[in-house]
Design brief:
alpha/beta; 2 domains; six-stranded parallel sheet; hydrolase activity; EC 3.1.3.-; HAD_sf
Length: 231
Amino acid sequence: MIGVRAVCFDLDGTLLRDDHVDEVVRQAASEEAVVRRLAPGFVDEAVSALHAYWFGVGESPALSTIPTDALPLDVWEAVLRRHGVEDREAAEAVHARQIALESAAAVLYDESLDVLASVRRAGLRTAVITNGPSALQRGKLATVGLDGFDAVVVSGEVGHRKPEREIFELALGVLGVGSDEAIHVGDNQTADVGGAVGAGLTAVWINRRGAAVASDPHHTIADLRGLLALL
């Protein structure tokens, strides 16, 4: 692409595998259920609610009780409340456990390192723009040894989250490029595609699962290797 100087990447589902996340939530919820002697349905509901929150797939009664700008901690609190636990500290504890488990379980997609190396050899600057708590997202990066980015922008650190325009503008500012000089690659059609388009970046949707199109990306790829053909 002529004029491109930087490539921004989403983290989960783009550079990092996300197919283990439900199992991480299940483990954290199971431990909480044992400690508090909660009904078995608590575990399945927690998995369902967090899955729906992250991936926009499926329905969960817990999500109907929280605002649209809720965070994962709020989802845990809502599920616990449905099972009679009103203690915010309980939600904080199980959320912290989920963060620790998820950080330790982070795994790169097979092509991530090779693609990043190719992008950098082409002289392009690279960034990560990711939604999530600082401890979780930074922990994942540390677990897989993913570094060398010119910018890492984490929603939990900057007070803005995708698809808000501001989080993309913060990354562009650190990179020192204009929106028309940057590509953003991500798997979420609202946060990544919609956010990038709204901020003026070229949006590349990575559709690893053959999902139905519900957005208007500039380009669609099946895995990260497809990005190289666009550059």
